[in-house]
Design brief:
Layout: E1 13-18, H1 25-34, H2 44-51, H3 60-71, H4 77-94, E2 98-103, H5 105-110, H6 116-134, E3 138-145, H7 150-161, E4 169-173, H8 185-193, E5 197-202, H9 208-216, E6 222-225, H10 233-242, E7 245-248, H11 250-255, H12 267-272, E8 276-279, H13 284-287, H14 291-301, H15 306-319, H16 324-335
Parallel strand pairs: 1-2, 2-3, 3-4, 4-5, 5-6, 6-7, 7-8
Helix pairs in contact: 4-6, 6-7
Length: 336
């Protein structure tokens, strides 16, 4: 039986949610038909096994193969704007009170030769229109996809910095094992100098040294995943000392084989250690989950007590890239 999930007097927050991994299958089919694209199926149930994970994958990069079908539909800037807009509507449908949506403009642009800068404009336009229409507060994080290497990283960063006033932060994602954080030190210095917050995927497919690099070299204020954190107690101490947030993604980590099972997930140990760990969806369209599923089903399966689940919810508010007054506003809205 599912444990009581979220605390009604705390906002429901998703801090780690990829725009490209949150598309509606109906939209994929609609744009596929409109643009005569070679999709593997032409109905939702036929498409589902190609773009959603039904069993654990052999690693993060295999999991990301599912997204390739999704980015196939990003044929123009209208498509980028549409999925951004629908992402915000889906937050409302899920009952989420605040979210930070992240995306890689280079990854979205690459398949159809789009201009990454124009992709950023389209995503910003779509999200901001969604916020106006649906009333869910959302902020945007721009990803540097490490998989393309440091040189492309500079181009991706330039596309993001051109609209920095519309973004709250930057992230480093992609092939962590082969493209370490140290390759992107100067990129993140530029981003920090531009006033942007920093979160970094680390300790997911590489060890705790990757987490240390993210914090010490890139200035990470939050870490995405961090499942290998406890392999080095000094890295645990570093995150405690600097009050670094952890964006945990339970179902995603099982599906990517980053952990072998929910029971083996370190989230409970993170909370036991008083780390600022949170519960997030990662790629809900690919994982076929919602944030409430992660709280109600995945978190109890990972051994979290009801009190720990509420603590993770509170940690999300504390570590959100929000002004303290905006945090108070979110909290006050739940007290009424």
């Amino acid at each position: 039986m599912a444990a009581p999930a979220t605390h009604p007097n705390l906002p429901l927050i998703d801090l780690h949610r990829h725009l490209e991994g949150s598309m509606r299958l109906e939209t994929v089919l609609d744009l596929g038909r409109k643009h005569n694209l070679p999709l593997p199926a032409w109905d939702v149930e036929g498409l589902r096994p190609h773009v959603q994970v039904t069993e654990p994958q052999p690693g993060v990069m295999a999991f990301l193969e599912k997204i390739k079908w999704l980015v196939t539909i990003l044929v123009d800037y209208d498509a980028c704007r549409r999925i951004a807009y629908e992402n915000v509507e889906d937050l409302l449908r899920e009952g989420i009170d605040y979210a930070e949506l992240r995306f890689s403009p280079w990854f979205m642009a690459e398949r159809h030769g789009l201009d990454p800068s124009a992709v950023v404009e389209a995503v910003v336009d779509g999200v901001e229109a969604g916020v106006r229409d649906f009333g869910v507060p959302v902020q945007i994080i721009g990803i540097l996809s490490r998989t393309y290497g440091a040189e492309v990283g500079y181009k991706e960063l330039a596309a993001l910095l051109a609209l920095k006033d519309h973004l709250v932060g930057v992230d480093l994602a992609g092939d962590e094992a082969n493209f370490p954080a140290r390759l992107f030190t100067s990129h993140f210095k530029q981003a920090r100098d531009a006033g942007m917050h920093v979160t970094v995927h680390a300790g997911e497919s590489d060890g705790p040294g990757s987490i240390r690099q993210a914090v010490e070299l890139l200035g990470a204020e939050r870490i995405g995943h961090a499942v290998h954190l406890f392999e080095d107690p000094s890295v645990v101490d570093l995150l405690l000392e600097r009050r670094i947030g952890i964006e945990a993604n339970l179902t995603s980590n099982v599906q990517t084989s980053s952990v072998v099972s929910f029971a083996a997930h370190p989230l409970r140990a993170m909370l036991d250690a008083s780390l600022l760990a949170t519960i997030n969806t990662d790629d809900p369209g690919i994982s076929a989950i919602t944030l409430k599923h992660e709280y109600e089903i995945a978190a109890p399966a990972a051994g979290l007590t009801p009190r720990q689940i509420v603590q993770a919810q509170a940690n999300a508010l504390e570590t959100a890239f929000l002004h303290p007054l905006d945090k108070q506003t979110l909290l006050a809205a739940k007290q009424d």
